[in-house]
């Protein structure tokens, strides 16, 4: 594995993520369409599915908000990397921005200066984990602002465990149609203030066809709101809720809800 292999792989992963949704995401969207009896909601879901097909066939991004670049990296302990991995990822993002192209979304938070290449201080956001093995796994997640802006974190008390589903549903209720529902919810429970937010985002990488009883409960409660696709009413507001946990301080209970629009874009590759 060479430096350019990482650069080219990152570029290709962003292209795949922007133009093609995973089979799991498409499947739950089709299920929502088939079960919907509200004509407006059904029409919106049909438009979403047609948009997905068009993006794939035309090889263009499925949304004008191509997101801010988030990259998850798993490095095998037995793998020896003799180059600057983070810089290779940054170069890959810059290449993707120019060639796909991606909208240059990354700006300085105070001056709002835009370098035009989605590269800046701590962007792309790169999350690195050490794992067993001798390979490098790269996963990209372009994260749009509409869903990110309505995400929330609350430092709850240990006595409020039973209130976690209610908090998640409150986040959905406050968001209404802003994140382009139907949405996915990544929920981080535990760890620290910042750790819970990272867990919430990581939860969105899960196969969206698989939920446990607790996750289904949150999803069902949120769908009782009736917000529906694009906030215009319907059976499906939340397509799925996914929880990741981390041990936390005995006196705290951080809970983060990271909202993701229907375009739950992600793509992975393994290099050796």
Strand order of the largest sheet: 2-1-3-8
Q: Would you tell me the overall average pLDDT?
A: 98
For the termini, the CA-CA separation is 6 Å
Alpha-beta content class: alpha/beta
State which percent range the strand residues make up.
15-25%
The outline comes out as globular
Largest sheet geometry: 4 strands, mixed
**Count of alpha and pi helical runs:** 8
How many beta-strand segments?
8
Fraction in helix: 25-40%
Could you spell the SSE succession in H and E letters? HHHEHEEHEHEHHEEE
Provide the low-confidence segments as ranges. none
Rg for CA atoms = 19 Å
Write up what this structure looks like.
With 272 residues, the protein is α/β, with parallel strands linked by helices. The protein has a domain at 146-260. The protein has eight helices and eight strands, in the order αααβαββαβαβααβββ. The chain has helices at residues 3-19, 23-35, 39-58, 85-99, 145-148, 164-175, 193-203, 213-223; strands at residues 68-76, 125-131, 136-143, 152-156, 183-190, 238-246, 253-260, 267-271. The strands form two sheets. It has a four-stranded mixed sheet. The chain has a four-stranded mixed sheet with strand order 4-7-5-6. Helix 1 (3-19) crosses helix 4, helix 2 (23-35) packs antiparallel against helix 3 and helix 6 (164-175) runs parallel beside helix 8. It is globular, with a radius of gyration of 19 Å.
């Amino acid at each position: 594995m060479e430096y350019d292999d990482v650069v080219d792989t990152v570029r290709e992963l962003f292209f795949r993520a922007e133009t093609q949704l995973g089979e799991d995401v498409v499947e739950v969207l089709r299920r929502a369409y088939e079960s919907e009896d509200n004509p407006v909601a059904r029409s919106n879901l049909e438009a979403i599915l047609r948009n997905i097909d068009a993006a794939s066939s035309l090889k263009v991004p499925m949304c004008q908000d191509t997101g801010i670049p988030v990259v998850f990296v798993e490095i095998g302990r037995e793998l020896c990397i003799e180059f600057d991995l983070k810089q290779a990822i940054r170069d890959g993002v810059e290449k993707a921005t120019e060639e796909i192209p991606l909208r240059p979304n990354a700006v300085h938070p105070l001056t709002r200066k835009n370098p035009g290449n989605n590269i800046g201080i701590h962007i792309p956001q790169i999350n690195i984990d050490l794992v067993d093995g001798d390979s490098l796994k790269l996963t990209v997640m372009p994260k749009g602002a509409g869903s990110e802006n309505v995400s929330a974190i609350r430092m709850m008390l240990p006595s409020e465990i039973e209130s976690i589903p209610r908090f998640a549903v409150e986040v959905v209720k406050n968001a209404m149609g802003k994140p382009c529902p139907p949405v996915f919810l990544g929920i981080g429970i535990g760890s620290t203030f910042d750790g819970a937010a990272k867990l919430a985002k990581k939860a969105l990488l899960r196969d969206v066809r698989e939920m446990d009883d607790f996750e289904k409960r949150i999803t069902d409660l949120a769908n009782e709101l009736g917000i529906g696709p694009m906030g215009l009413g319907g059976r499906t507001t939340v397509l799925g809720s996914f929880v990741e946990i981390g041990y936390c301080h005995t006196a705290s209970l951080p809970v983060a809800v990271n909202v993701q629009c229907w375009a739950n874009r992600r793509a992975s590759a393994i290099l050796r």
